[in-house]
């Protein structure tokens, strides 16, 4: 699979704009030589950055845009005034089939609102979701929704399961990814009615392109127990941020512990190879990039504050998603599934 | 404050029964000499364990009970058949003012159901909550609800804020604890209507016995940004479990990293003092114990699988809560608050 793929970049998005976007794209290009880029934003600023990376410059086209969506713009404002901005234009490139995927480090709310407006949800999908890659002790899993919506009904949760499975097929190359519904551990209240109904559908519907494993508690996500973890967006966003916060907190504990005494300092120095591996494993830049799923086109959201290495991870992810033909296959899965639950309901 | 306090122990609760409960109580007694105990359960089994701890035996009374609530019993079963069990009797001791607090490592659902039935929710409270102590880089904060209920409306969230503040006053000895509502980070969807309404009430109501700080994202919990974090029980339970899982995951990474090469092994040995401090900080047994808040009496739930050290933490927590006169003060706060939001609504 070395098909050429064109990546539309919102060069003005994020806290650092073209500076980080261009360098990030250049890093990703060394890893995936089969990419071309269209960079949307201020022509002069982008050209200046591109001069530093001739290999990237050769594979890049710049489309000048005048306006930029502010990082604190409200989604409704962004929709009203955003037409022609770097973000808008980068998304339109996917709609117009000039690019296979869009990557932006801009304002999440604005990016989602514009993506919905321009690309439209897939016909069977009520709500798109944001999927995160989550590092596990085994490798990585996919968690969705991490914040596109608050709440999800049973049908939406089941759709998220199919969407997550499609992404796992694309990224992990698994034919039947394992999927679980995130739930709480106390027996009596084991999920609200929507979680229970989604569970029943996923369990009872035959022939789904996934291996449904039932409920999962929060402490199992990082153990890599399943490939795809499904949860509504409020709890999913909180889980993701809490995991990030806990990793940071333990990093602080570790630094404090290693600088306590001369022995621990010496020991840490001796073990620096090990700590380097650990730092790499815990580096949030390795898995940067939220994937908008359920639209007629793939949009990747990079953290706004990340550096070039982090942005490169988001571009890598965009490339892998663009390689996969995910949307066509997902559309078929959704039609089949909705047909089957329709039959079940009619029985 | 060295008033004597009587602790009712469900000696049969948890995976290990009297074995862990008795040794745990004995450890806690060395830290808080002002405790007496009533142990509910199989007299012979408890006596056998108590023989090993003469100082504890001197301060303990045994009340023999015949039945035990199974760890996998459904709450509804436990309510129907649980009368006279060790768990039931230990809770009744608080209702009958024979003990100041109950500690059990038994089945959470059964313990909550019985506690609600026997102790009853406080008059102004619609739903009790389970509050967890959460380690932070500064010290600890309180997070509630971590799983008593799924979902919470605005009024319940505001009540949780007052309940958490009362607990923070009791444990941290702060007159006006800082409180925040846990929320998601995406602007447009910043909380559902209940979270927004609770935010408005907490912000606008004057004279509350707390310092309301607005919204907080999941990554800030472990930074100790506030003393009390309020969230509905589904997301709260998932956040708690996710943090536990992330800590475990990073522990695994760290062990792997430190055993990679002979240098990292040597370094880890040299730095073992530092690692010991780290292990202590990350030890989940240090903060074992969920507090049931909003009932006419305090019940502490210990992890079922913990050992004596972990159970001792739950007993410590019970003692500190029993010391504090929390319920009387909380009852006043609730009356005042509900009166004020009533006034606001009438204006």
* Low-pLDDT sequence parts of chain A: none
Oligomer: homodimer
Major sheet strand order of chain A: 3-2-1-4-11-10-5-6-9-7-8
Work out the helicity level of chain A: 40-55%
In CATH, the topology of the largest domain in chain A is named Isopropylmalate Dehydrogenase
End-to-end gap of chain A: 43 Å
Order of helices and strands of chain A: EHEHHEHHEHEEHEHEEHHHEEHH
What is the CATH C-level name of the largest domain in chain A?
Answer: Alpha Beta
Integer tally of domains of chain A? 2
**Secondary-structure class of chain A:** alpha/beta
Verbal overview:
The structure is a homodimer of 347-residue chains. Chain A has two domains: 157 residues, Isopropylmalate Dehydrogenase (3-Layer(aba) Sandwich), CATH 3.40.718; 162 residues, Isopropylmalate Dehydrogenase (3-Layer(aba) Sandwich), CATH 3.40.718.10. The first copy, chain A, contains 13 helices and eleven strands. In chain A, strands 3-2-1-4-11-10-5-6-9-7-8 form an eleven-stranded mixed beta sheet, sandwiched between helices. In chain A, helix 5 runs parallel beside helix 6. The longest helix of chain A has 26 residues. The first copy, chain A, is globular and about 60 Å long. Chains A and B meet through helix 6, helix 9, helix 10 and helix 11 of A and helix 6, helix 9, helix 10 and helix 11 of B.
